[in-house]
Amino acid sequence: MKDGPVIANIAALLGDPARANMLTALMDGRALTVSELAGVAGVTLQTASGHLAKLSAANLTLMEKQGRHRYFRLSGPDVAEVLEGLMGLAQRTGAVRVRTGPKDQALRTARICYDHLAGERGVEMLDAARRLHLVAEDADIALTDKGRDFFTGLGLDIDRLEKGKRPLCRACLDWSERRNHLGGALGAALLESFIARGWARRFEGRVISFTPSGAQAFRSAFSIE
Amino acid sequence: MKDGPVIANIAALLGDPARANMLTALMDGRALTVSELAGVAGVTLQTASGHLAKLSAANLTLMEKQGRHRYFRLSGPDVAEVLEGLMGLAQRTGAVRVRTGPKDQALRTARICYDHLAGERGVEMLDAARRLHLVAEDADIALTDKGRDFFTGLGLDIDRLEKGKRPLCRACLDWSERRNHLGGALGAALLESFIARGWARRFEGRVISFTPSGAQAFRSAFSIE
DNA sequence: TTCATGCTTCGGTTAACGTCGAACTATGAA
DNA sequence: TTCATAGTTCGACGTTAACCGAAGCATGAA
Fold first, then answer.
1. Count of Cβ atoms closer than 10 Å to residue A95 Cβ
2. Are B83 and A7 a contacting pair at CB < 8 A?
3. Where do the TM regions start and end (chains A, B) (predicted)?
């Protein structure tokens, strides 16, 4: 008996290596062009174009034009969440690449998940936010008064973040840590702040690289030992 | 550049309607036979047998024999979590069945997610547990002393649950509510208890049906208005 | 031992899909 | 206006995979 949403169609779209690679590349929240995505997926322009047409038709990606460039991005953080979930499942069931490189460890240490920090650092941050009572968890994760002061002290405009449509805080399940990290508008703003402060920078693909002093500052800020 | 776990293979397995239907049928945590799953998927025995062979080879399902019967179950709660995630994404992107029936609302109200309560009731329960300080959230969800007394009062053997391998409490993202419900050994034990008490019973498929008095008792127990 | 049931395996058929070369369209630069 | 670049569309080709009828294997009942 079939009920509920139709998942086979979505899963089938993710089930092609070229499309999966393109979506994974978009997990860093940036918008990429057809040419760039063709390169990431290792297929020709025509093949990439056809795949992106399918992904957009299924509302998994959004396309915007700038002159003759077509930019594609994920249509929402839930796409990244599903990809994270699949990565966790692939990890547990043994669907992993034979040769793991330094990139794999780097991805586990810190990476971007759509627009917020994921990986060990991401999970550490949410842990610390709870321990320091910066957030409380009712319906989902909510900011405490102490947290509001704390993040304002870090230079974030919490009022502006709250005015947006998306939730301020969201728990996001991390494939590599199997625990939650902090998503939502706050999660995104924090990563933006870390980059602006020079604590971290974007590295290859989805890797976020912390400088030694940046890692130290991050740990100090959140009282992480 | 390809890195991290290989998700296309897993996604491709979920991307066939017959296999997706079989996995969805197994989300209720029960074990089903090849014949039953063939019926659920609307394919012949041979086709179902082949699909199950693939799913088991990929470690998505586990098979155990009893005489000439082969029983299949999901290999872990993370498979159900990924399916829940895909259902949420399918819902948002419009990959839904044209005709929604009463079953759809029933699924939203209360259903089983692998072995614990999901849906509005499931989310309500976790909300209430937080509000009543029955759980605290550090690394993940942890039981408070008050919570330990509360659930022991409900007849649960918390010590035994903690001795098991799986985490006592786990947040599990609910596709229909877009918020977390309570998974883990405690989540499973609670649903088992509700059924044992007669508050709820299994209905068709994954639907969990609360009796009127059971729903009232559930609300009273968790101080839900 | 024979028969019934549950299930697997094999081989053939069909449809679907990804791929790319070639041609074309849209946009921007010279 | 012409040329270059980004991207789309079309058609052909090859591969893959789902499906099922038929045959066979494993298990249990009579």
1. 21
2. yes
3. none
8 Å CB contact of B92 and A59: yes
Same domain for B192 and B122: yes
Q: List the nucleotides on chain D closer than 7 A to a protein CB.
A: 5-11, 17-23, 26-28
Mean pLDDT (whole number) for A51-70: 92
* CB contact (8 A) between residue B1 and residue A40: yes
CA closest to C1' of C5 belongs to B68
Q: How many Cβ pairs closer than 8 A exist between chain A and B?
A: 196
Between the two ends of chain A, the Cα-to-Cα distance in Å is 52
State the nearest Cα–Cα gap between B51 and chain A, in angstroms.
Answer: 14
How many angstroms separate the CA of B18 from the C1' of D18?
A: 10
- State whether B96 and A3 contact (CB < 8 Å): no
Asked whether residue A133 carries a pLDDT value surpassing 90, the answer given is no
Specify whether B48 is located in the same domain as B100. no
The whole-model pTM stands at 0.75
ipTM higher than threshold 0.85: no
Is the same domain home to A69 and A93? no
Q: Do B51 and B22 contact (CB within 8 A), yes or no? A: yes
CA/C1' separation A76–D15 (Å): 34
Chain B CB contacts of A173 under 8 Å are 81, 171, 173
Residue A119's φ and ψ, nearest 5 degrees, are 95, -170
Q: Where are the alpha helices (DSSP H) in A34-76?
A: 34-41, 45-57
Which regions of chain B are under pLDDT 70? Answer: 1-5, 98-102, 137-140, 178
Query: Is B130 close to A138, i.e. CB distance below 8 A?
Result: yes
CA distance A192 to A201: 10
Q: Distance from CA of residue B158 to its chain's centroid?
A: 21
In angstroms, the CA A179 to CA A166 distance is 22
Question: Taken in order A47, A48, A54, A57, is the CA torsion positive or negative?
Answer: negative
A46 and A111 share one domain: no
For residue B142, give how far its alpha carbon lies from the nearest alpha carbon of chain A (Å): 12
The pair of structure tokens assigned to A180 is: 């939650």
Looking at the fold, whether A66 and A89 belong to one and the same domain comes out as no
Model confidence pLDDT, tens digit, residues B97-128: 766 666 778 888 888 888 888 888 888 888 78
Residues in a beta bridge with B141: B137
**By residue range, what is the domain housing residue A123?**
79-221
CATH of the domain at B55: 1.10.10.10
Q: Contacts of residue B127 in chain A, CB cutoff 8 Å?
A: 138-139
